Structure formats: C-alpha cells, structure tokens
C-alpha cells in the first residue's frame, strides 16, 4: 500500500517537472533560443583612474607657479638691463672712435694734457677760489687744443650739436658770446699789427735820420726794411732745412747766429759813428745828442 503510494507520488512529481520544463520552453522567445555564446571570452573593460589632488597639493602648485612666473619676469628684466647696458657700451665706444682722429696718437698727448692740468691745480692751490676753479679747466682746454687739435675740434663740434639740440636758447647765447670774442680778438690783432707797423716805421725813420746826419748806411747793415730781413731769414731757414734732417734745431741755431751777427754789426757801426762824431768838431752838445740817438737805436 505504502509502496504503491510512493510510486504514484514519484510519477506525479516527474510529471509536474516535465510540465514546468515545457512551460519554460514555451515561454522563452525564439530569438534567444537561436543565440549562441561566443567562443572567446569577452575583453576586460578599461578602468580609468582619476587622480584627485588634495588641498595641500593644490596650494603648493599655485605657489610654485607664482614663484616660477616671478622668476621669469625678474630674469627678463635683468636680461633687458644687461642688453641696454651692452647697447650703451657699444654706442659710447662707437662715439669715441668717431671723435678720435686717426692721425693723432693718444699715448703721449693724453699724458701731457694731464700734466698740464695738474700743473694748473698745483700752481693755484694757495690762490683764491675763482683761480683754483678756472685755471685747471683753462689749461686742460688749451693743452688739449695744442696736443690733440683734431680730436678737440671733433669733441667741441659734438657738444655744440648736443647744445643746439637740447638747449637752443643757451646755444644762441653761446654763439653770440663766441662772435663777440672773435671780434674782440680780431680787433686786438689789428691793434697789435698797427703798433708793430708804427714801431717799425719809427725805427726805420730814426735810422733814416741817422743816415742823413752821419752818412752811414745803417739800413743795409741792420736790414730794417722788414721784407729784406724776412727774405734773408727765410733763405737761411731753407738752406738749413735742405742741409740737415733736424730742421727745428738748425733753424733756431742759424737764427740766433744771424741775430748775433746783426747785433755785432750794429754795435760796430755805432762805434764807428761815435768815432766820426768825435772827429767831426768841437760842438759837444750836438755830438752828445747824436751819441744819445745812436745809443737809442742800438
């Protein structure tokens, strides 16, 4: 009895299982029943890790970028200053080369100019303040114009152009003062030339009077005609230049010799005149006046 009941239950369970399977098969769609699984396994999905910095790291990055930017700006400014300094050095060097004359040597001339300037300061160290302030620059200008005339002229022209460009009113006043000084200098030269001509004319006239009184030709002995004396001196100088390489020394020696000879001849002529005056007669007053005239001429 029990055995039969168990068999019925088993058969009933199998039937319910078969019915459930058939219901599941019937409930699945036809497309999924046809889908097949792939042979190879599916590829792994790409995993992206995003780094999220902390607040401290973010602050450090901000500070580092600021410091880097400040360093770059400072470097650019320093480099700009260096470039400007190099440009200024190049400009100054080019300007100095343009001002210096290639025909003039700076080695001894600058030394002479410095010695002259220091000499002025030494000579005026116990003098008044205006002299101490004016004499050294004056000696500097005079010595530079003497030893380096072309370079000094170039420097003067350059400063004049700067004055005309940046200080036109001062340049105008400077030009007016320069014109007045040139006029004064020309007048002084004319006065000196007139005084010299008057002196030479007086001497020539005195010699002429002596020649009329005594009959001696002092003009030929002393050669006060001016042109004849200059011609003789020039002839001697030309002979000295042709005869020797040391032109300046020889010319000075020859000029001194000529002057000594002329003075000796004048003294001899004066002595001869005095002798003739003494031999002329007993008029002592006239003889004394003539002797005085001869002494003045000598």
UniProtKB/TrEMBL annotation:
Keyword Phosphoprotein: no
Record keywords, A-Z: Membrane, Mitochondrion, Mitochondrion inner membrane
Basic and acidic residues: compositionally biased ranges: 288-298
Primary localization: mitochondrion
Region (Disordered): 279-298
One Gene Ontology cellular component annotation held by this UniProt entry: mitochondrial crista junction
InterPro entries tied to this protein: MIC26/MIC27 (IPR019166), Mic26_fungi (IPR033181)
Protein name per its UniProtKB record: MICOS complex subunit
Organism this protein belongs to: Lentinula aff. detonsa
